[in-house]
Amino acid sequence: MSSFSDGAGPEITGLVDSLLALDSRSLIGALAVLAIGALIALTGRVLSGFWTNYRAWRDRRRHFREVVIDILIHVEFDRKSVEDTTAPVRLEALKALIRDSGDDFRPFVAFESDDPTWEDYRSIRRRLEPSQIVACDRFFDHSRLFYRYYEKLQSDEFVALSTPRKEAALDGLQHIGQDVLQSGAEMVQALQDGKRTADIYARVESDLKKIAPKDGIAEINQQTEKPEGFLESND
């Protein structure tokens, strides 16, 4: 026991060596073994908890990046789709077909309704900045309205419309399409300026430019002008 008293100095290694050298059958030895075991177990739990939390944080961060990338790609495809669908030449050709075919005309609509981007966005919505939430909500509202409206062009309700009202419906589609382009540009700008999303935006824009240099995501900002006299065409 005198050796234990002599070893009770500031040196940690000496203390640990002394504890390990104790007779485990003695009370002090048993307590020391229990204390060391408890310390090891506590350290293991702390490290395990830290690792679990780190993995959860890493997974949330990766999921956030993936969803933002999906949103930016989605808005670029929406831009191209809306531009192609509402191109003045295409709509005028449809109006000519309506006038030639009469009231029974039903256009062919290629429609895909299973895009998961909206639900994915909802999973990270509250992790965005307030201005980004407003911009994203507005874009998705307009985008979903556009495709629901577009899908209606092949419905019996559209067929039942008179020729002038069919043409007005196409003008309405173009109007909603312009809202999609405008809100998409605002959303892209909000993500580009965000603290957590600026780097993601830069990466996506760079990748899109490599695929199609003339059709990079930044070009969406140039597609927001409404044609003069458009509103009068709905009267």
Automatic annotation (TrEMBL):
Keyword Transmembrane helix belongs to the record: yes
Top-level taxon of origin: Bacteria
Transmembrane segments: 27-52
Region (Disordered) residue spans: 215-235
Keywords, comma-separated and alphabetical: Membrane, Transmembrane, Transmembrane helix
Protein name: DUF4760 domain-containing protein
Organism: Halocynthiibacter styelae
